[in-house]
Amino acid sequence: MVEMKAGPSVLAFLCVAVVSVFLLGRPEMSEGQGDTREAMLARARAVEIDSEYVPPPGDPLSHHVSGFAKTLCSAVFVTGLDHEFAAENIGFFSGPYEYRRRVTNLEIDRDERRVHLTLPNGTVRTAKLNGDHGCVTLPVGEDDVLFDPVDIPSLLPDPSTQSWPMGDVIPDIQFSDRIDTEKVRQAVMAAFEPTNGMTAAFVVTYKGQIIGERYGTGITMHTPLESWSMGKSLTATLMGVLIRQGVYDLYQAAPIPEWQTDGDPRQEIRIADILRMSSGLRFRGVADPDLDLSLGYPDHLYVYTGSTNSFGWAATRPQQWPPNTIGRYRNSDPVLTNYLIRLGVEARGDEYLSFPQRELFDRIGIRGMVLETDPHGNYLLQGYELAPARDWARLGNLYLQDGMWDGERILPEGFVEFVSTVAPAWEADGRPIYGGFFWINGTGSFPVPRESYYMSGAGGQTTLIIPSHDLVVVRQGHYRGAASGGRSLRQALALLMDAIPEG
């Protein structure tokens, strides 16, 4: 069956400024700046390398509509949401309202599992469900992806037959002598109040066991939800697996093929620098303190919406600063980390697309993560992944347990400390908020100990690891409710701090 919606009336949303949409619900972007913006920029100018900036090609409207098409496709065919609900509430990051309003025709083809959006000039942007790889936006003029999809089955048993965390069965473990169960209950309720916070899932684990859990209407423990940049922390984890397996060393120079020409300054960039968002590449991010939208479409978004080889684009960006000098939140670094993951996996003769499930997910009980790619089959795990809250809780507990799982070391010794320690380049700006693809609560933006660290995604997606209290807290929500949902999360966390003692 094909559903048709003609005209802009279906998409008659509020217009929100682009930058505001990007930053909505991201406290880490507005707090903990330390030095003034001017001082940050002056320090960056003092060490800047003279290199040319070339903006991404293409029309911003087409790019934003590409992002909107992918968002709708994933919401409808992966998460299972109504397309009109998704258009109003999901994934504004890569397809803001002001661009959604300009779509002249919206078509949901449920037989072919495709979304077609028509621009005012007649161009059609199409996103399709691509098997186990979720949704991908096709290049204009192409009818399919440019790689061969693979099946990615989990080798784990039916989760209903296994106890948490490897399965869904919650063991009967009593913690009433150590925690205030009533306050835990209140915390779970607080995460969903008020309703305009649009919290979709909330999971609390204590000492690895689920002690609080609730889902929004139509959402279950198995529903893959938009997660956005929490995928960056997943990317760090996959790199950690390869380091543990001896494929890479954390502090080696990053072996990006495009950087191997004699005299290329990018040969000085280490894997650690990339994980710390400190590569120094000239790659405009939407959270840059000097963001100038007049310079063209930001690279940060282009690797989502450009329908291009994202690895190739990031790898060919020039150097802006020496590595490990200036910290900036830019998608160049997680994209390049995923490039390195692909290179490392394929160099040893393994299949790349099934690597996360085979080498990580099946080892810690994750069955529901859907990892999405660009049209060339490159994982876009800087933010294109959907997963149930329980799976994020499993990943958080891997870190809470110092990279160990059931007596087996999955991440190398010292890796958890690395990702949860403030990166030197960020510390130099007086911003103790970023580690190794994990945010750090160094300015107290959350009412939990400042040593806590977290995965964070646009729209209020959060997985908090609180070692002092043996807690992992996951909150996922629909994008529109980010601001209110963030306040609800803080109320819930304050209650949890009262409910659960340190140690």
Please, could you describe this protein's structure?
It is a single chain. The protein is globular. The strands form four sheets. It has a six-stranded antiparallel β-sheet with strand order 7-6-16-15-14-13, with helices on both faces. A five-stranded antiparallel β-sheet has the order 1-2-3-4-5, with helices on one face. It contains 16 helices and 16 strands. The protein has a single domain (1-171, 184-503), classed as DD-peptidase/beta-lactamase superfamily (Beta-lactamase, 3-Layer(aba) Sandwich), CATH 3.40.710.10. Helix content is 31%, strand content 14%. Strand 3 and strand 4 (124-129) form a beta hairpin. The protein is an alpha+beta fold.
| Unreliable sequence segments | 1-34
CATH-wise, what's the superfamily?
DD-peptidase/beta-lactamase superfamily
Q: From the structure provided, what is the oligomeric state, counting identical versus distinct chains? A: single chain
Q: What characterizes the major β-sheet? A: 6 strands, antiparallel
* CATH architecture verdict: 3-Layer(aba) Sandwich
**CATH-assigned fold name:** Beta-lactamase
N-to-C CA distance: 56 Å
